[in-house]
Design brief:
Elements lengths: L1 H21 L8 H13 L13 H17 L3 H15 L1 E5 L5 E6 L6 H18 L2 H15 L23 H18 L2 H17 L2 E2 L4 E2 L17 H18 L2 H17 L12 H4 L7 H16 L2 H17 L1 E2 L4 E2 L12 H22 L1
Antiparallel strand pairs: 1-2, 3-4, 5-6
Helix pairs in contact: 2-14, 3-4, 3-5, 3-14, 5-6, 5-7, 6-7, 7-8, 7-9, 9-10, 9-12, 12-13, 12-14, 13-14
């Protein structure tokens, strides 16, 4: 009897130890509000169009990317694969309307009049491919990138892609850095030499263009059409973030620390110059901060700063991500709508799904850090 009890007890202990080893032992301070925010995000998507109409077209690519990142973080691939498939089936052909609701044209394969829009969707489908291994998502990203190459021109500043088609106007940072980032991440997935060649060509041009202002370690918005010189003083967090990722990728690709030094200089300048006195990330232009586009910017910065953090492991980036996430859950969360707002230092002011997803990205990156620490 005693021997039988020992076997039963030992078996029970093995089950308990095995079960506890498979679960997150301590729920982080971020998890409940992160989960609630994501549920709100998913519920707010339009089932007929597949996107988040209140957020808009390019923003929806970023909201969608946040969903994919969440699925990876929480190991909920099975839950989100149907949503990813639904977005793909409903948005690869998408009607575009003007401000008055009049039909303008049908956007096919995410190709439209804006090269930066195309870049956001290409990167989203690369992430979807990495999560699901569904080849059609990677093929779509390649289709989009081929169209982005048509924006390259040597007529202004000897290279770079334009921001907008029909007519081709304005070469700016976001379009060109998204072009570079899409190229290198397609190279990672396909090993096709052409993507690496485009990546190097774009980065070399960009660093010669003056869009990276080495005087203050900030990214300028674009090149003035009349002077062919960079605009000065128009600084947005998302421009800094995507450039940080591109230069970090260049460091990893070339094994040249000079690129990592540039990425870190940009990151540290943003942390110093694009924050409140309390160290919380913000857009200095108040009109941009709460605008339909601007509310998305800070989450994009944090997503790419996190890539730099995972590359370097430096505590200053970890601390910054955690500090901002703590501010968001403490001062910028609305329990009624179960969503985050656009002012990360608080208070919560307005329900916007683009703002919700942007703050959610910061909270998710903090949760990634916490889960790594618990391993």
């Amino acid at each position: 009897m005693k021997k039988f009890f020992s076997f039963v007890f030992l078996g029970a202990m093995i089950i308990v130890v095995s079960w506890s080893g498979c679960k997150q032992t301590v729920e982080s301070r971020f998890q409940k509000k992160m989960d609630a925010s994501m549920n709100t995000l998913v519920e707010s998507r339009n089932d007929s169009t597949g996107i988040w109409p209140e957020a808009g077209w390019w923003n929806s690519a970023n909201l969608f990317t946040a969903v994919i990142r969440y699925a990876e973080l929480t190991n909920q691939k099975k839950r989100f694969v149907p949503l990813i498939e639904d977005v793909f089936s409903k948005t690869r052909k998408f009607p575009v309307y003007d401000d008055k609701g009049n039909f303008m044209f049908e956007c096919k394969n995410y190709i439209n009049d804006y090269y930066d829009d195309e870049g956001w969707w290409a990167l989203a489908w690369i992430e979807a491919y990495k999560l699901t291994a569904k080849k059609e998502y990677l093929e779509m990203a390649e289709t989009i990138f081929r169209d982005m190459t048509t924006g390259w021109s040597d007529d202004i500043c000897q290279g770079g892609i334009y921001w907008k088609k029909n007519p081709l106007v304005y070469k700016n940072s976001i379009a060109n850095n998204l072009f570079a980032l899409t190229a290198i991440r397609l190279y990672h997935q396909t090993q096709k030499k052409e993507y690496a060649e485009w990546f190097e060509k774009e980065v070399n041009w960009y660093l010669d263009s003056g869009l990276y202002n080495t005087d203050n370690q900030m990214i300028e918005d674009g090149i003035d059409n009349k002077t062919n010189q960079p605009n000065r003083g128009r600084y947005y967090t998302y421009n800094q973030g995507v450039a940080i990722a591109v230069l970090t990728e260049m460091y990893l690709y070339k094994n040249d620390t000079s690129y990592l030094e540039k990425a870190e200089a940009l990151a540290q300048s943003a942390i110093k110059n694009m924050t409140t006195e309390q160290g919380i990330l913000c857009e200095h232009n108040k009109d941009i901060a709460a605008g339909n586009d601007g509310v998305q910017f800070k989450g994009i910065f944090m997503r790419h700063l996190s890539f730099l953090y995972r590359t370097t492991g430096k505590a200053m980036y970890e601390d910054f991500i955690l500090k901002n996430a703590d501010s968001i859950i403490s001062h910028d969360y609305d329990s009624i709508s179960r969503s985050f707002g656009c002012y990360w230092y608080g208070p919560f002011r307005e329900v916007k799904m683009a703002a919700n997803s942007s703050a959610l990205e910061c909270v998710m990156e903090a949760e990634f850090i916490v889960r790594e620490q618990q391993k």
